[in-house]
Amino acid sequence: MSEHDPTSAEERRRRDPMSMSNQPALQTSTGLIWIVVGGCFAVASLIPLVMLAVAGGASSPIAIVTIAAVVLLYAALVVLRFAIRRRPTRLWWMAACMLMMAAVALVGIWVSAIAEAR
């Protein structure tokens, strides 16, 4: 292939074992790892959120909404495991759910902390 061939860069990227998109968790996994890690993360993020919700302070409504969002995103991650047949597509969507779950939990805990500080 010449360097002017538009697929040459794509072929090199596909063969690069260090490329993020070529990692086993995004190419050959069954998806179980995403379910296990996502579940562990959900539990770890729900512990402080539940404590904030039960405390009944100013951050309680924020914590409750964040809890619901984290649980829904984890449920979506599990549903995606069985709903999408094509493996790379399924794994990419599961990874996206995990990242969204992390972002939602981070922002929810951060906003709850700000609400409690006031």
Automatic annotation (TrEMBL):
It comes from Leucobacter muris. Residues 1-17 have a biased composition (Basic and acidic residues). Keywords: Membrane, Transmembrane, Transmembrane helix. Residues 1-24 are annotated as: Disordered. SUPFAM superfamilies: MFS general substrate transporter. The chain crosses the membrane at residues 32-56, 62-84, 91-115. The lineage of its organism: Bacteria, Bacillati, Actinomycetota, Actinomycetes, Micrococcales. InterPro entries: MFS_trans_sf. This is Uncharacterized protein.
